[in-house]
């Protein structure tokens, strides 16, 4: 009779040993219909199981010759559904398209105010086969063959566009604090989240985004200026499968909203360390203040700006085609010589681990098997590149 009893006890003993080995990967709960996913530890442990090949699959600076393969002030880079590569070049104010192999295919743009021209080209976004190009206060809509099919006005403080599918886009707005706002001291004004169609018509408001931490300096009743907190938090948004992801960067947490603005899920890593050392705070303050002469009008607001209690959890959110959420870990101004590191949450909220990018490489987009971005070489020449991503 001992053998059946032993067989019954074995699963129980195994589960006890598993609990002693460490916390579970994920704890799931529900609060008033909102799914809460808490990732307790990284699946990968101390080393990343996803690898980037530092030798690019494509380097658009080296894949051809002439001015079409020269880039200055590059603003954005995207891969279209057919594999072609799109570049927003800030110096020439051009949108350029290249084949998947790096061959120049065509362009539109140039400096100006006419249709298809730009004054401050900022971002590009795919909306199916349609290409959206964000200028200051205006969006240009182009067909797949780069024919400009329309333009519409947009909030001039829009810094990015996010395609939600079904002809819906979400502008990401970062409006500064202005003297007429009548605010003083530490403030954090919210930013609206508003859906538009591809003609710029407002569809609906879907809530708001907690704004950036800003200090407004007022002396003798007069507005002097505004400056961000040292290590101040800033909001970020992204789109995933017709849902909106938003994060204030106060903690390693991302909220998922449906297209009606309802909170449906929270992804978080509890107690993720965001401590700041006194030495790092002092170095950050010295670095920023050294950029202003004693009489510079912006120096006083920066001198008065407080230090945030913790460093921001992340400085960008990207979503790859698998639904995995990539969070760029924060780096201070004095840490910019360090490579970008991206924390990865799987589509179900599991904390996978961290992927480190090559030195001097800035990420623009992540696909299933590649990372798009810009590398600056030792001569500060910009190289738009496609790096192979291996997911082991």
Could you provide a short overview of the structure?
This protein has 3 helices and 30 strands. The protein has helices spanning 2-21, 278-289, 299-304, and strands at residues 26-31, 34-39, 50-52, 58-59, 74-79, 85-89, 94-98, 104-109, 123-127, 130-135, 138-142, 148-153, 158-165, 168-173, 185-187, 191-197, 202-209, 214-219, 222-228, 236-240, 243-247, 253-257, 263-268, 314-319, 325-329, 341-345, 351-356, 361-366, 370-376, 382-391.
Number of helical elements? 3
Can you summarize the main beta sheet? 6 strands, mixed
**Beta-strand segment tally:** 30
* Helix content percent band: under 10%
Could you tell me the radius of gyration in angstroms?
A: 23 Å
Kindly name the structural category.
mainly beta
User: Strand share of the residues?
Assistant: 35-45%
Order of strands in the sheet with the most strands?
1-2-23-22-21-20
Poorly predicted regions: 1-20
On the 0 to 100 scale, the average pLDDT is: 92
Q: Judging from the principal axes of the Cα atoms, what is the shape?
A: globular
- Termini gap: 46 Å
Question: If you had to describe this structure to a student in words, what would you say it looks like?
Answer:
It is a single chain. This protein is mainly β. 10% of the residues lie in helices and 44% in strands. The protein has a six-stranded mixed sheet, with no helix packed on it. Strands 3, 4, 28, 29 and 30 form a five-stranded antiparallel sheet that branches. The longest helix has 20 residues. The protein is globular and about 55 Å long. The protein starts with a helix and ends with a strand.
């Amino acid at each position: 009779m001992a053998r059946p009893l032993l067989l019954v006890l074995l699963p129980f003993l195994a589960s006890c040993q598993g609990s002693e080995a460490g916390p579970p990967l994920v704890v799931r709960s529900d609060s008033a219909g909102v799914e809460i996913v808490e990732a307790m530890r990284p699946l990968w442990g101390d080393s990343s199981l996803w690898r980037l090949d530092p030798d690019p699959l494509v380097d658009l600076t080296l894949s051809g010759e002439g001015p079409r393969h020269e880039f200055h002030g590059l603003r954005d880079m995207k891969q279209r559904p057919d594999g072609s590569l799109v570049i927003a070049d800030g110096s020439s104010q051009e949108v350029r398209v290249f084949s998947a192999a790096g061959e120049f295919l065509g362009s539109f743009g140039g400096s100006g105010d006419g249709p298809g021209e730009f004054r401050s080209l900022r971002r590009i976004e795919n909306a199916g086969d349609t290409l959206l190009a964000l200028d200051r206060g205006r969006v240009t809509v182009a067909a797949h063959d780069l024919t400009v099919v329309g333009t519409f006005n947009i909030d001039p403080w829009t810094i990015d566009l996010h395609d939600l599918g079904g002809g819906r886009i979400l502008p990401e707005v970062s409006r500064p604090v202005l003297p007429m706002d009548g605010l003083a001291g530490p403030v954090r004004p919210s930013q609206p989240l508003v859906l538009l169609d591809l003609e710029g018509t407002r569809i609906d408001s879907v809530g708001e985004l907690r704004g950036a931490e800003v200090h407004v300096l007022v002396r003798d009743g007069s507005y002097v200026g505004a400056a961000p907190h040292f290590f101040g938090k800033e909001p970020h948004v992204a789109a995933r499968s017709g849902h909106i992801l938003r994060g204030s960067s106060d903690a390693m947490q991302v909220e998922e909203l449906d297209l009606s603005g309802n909170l449906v899920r929270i992804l978080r890593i509890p107690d993720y360390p965001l401590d700041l050392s006194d030495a790092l705070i002092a170095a950050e303050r010295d670095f920023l203040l050294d950029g202003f002469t004693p009489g510079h009008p912006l120096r006083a607001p920066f001198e008065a700006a407080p230090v945030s209690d913790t460093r921001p959890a992340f400085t960008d959110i990207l979503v790859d085609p698998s639904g995995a959420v990539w969070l760029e870990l924060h780096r201070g101004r004095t840490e910019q010589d360090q490579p970008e590191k991206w924390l990865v949450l799987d589509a179900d909220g599991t904390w996978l681990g961290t992927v480190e990018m090559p030195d001097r490489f800035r990420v623009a987009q992540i696909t299933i098997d590649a990372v798009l971005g810009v590398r600056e070489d030792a001569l500060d020449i910009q190289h738009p590149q496609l790096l192979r991503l291996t997911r082991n």
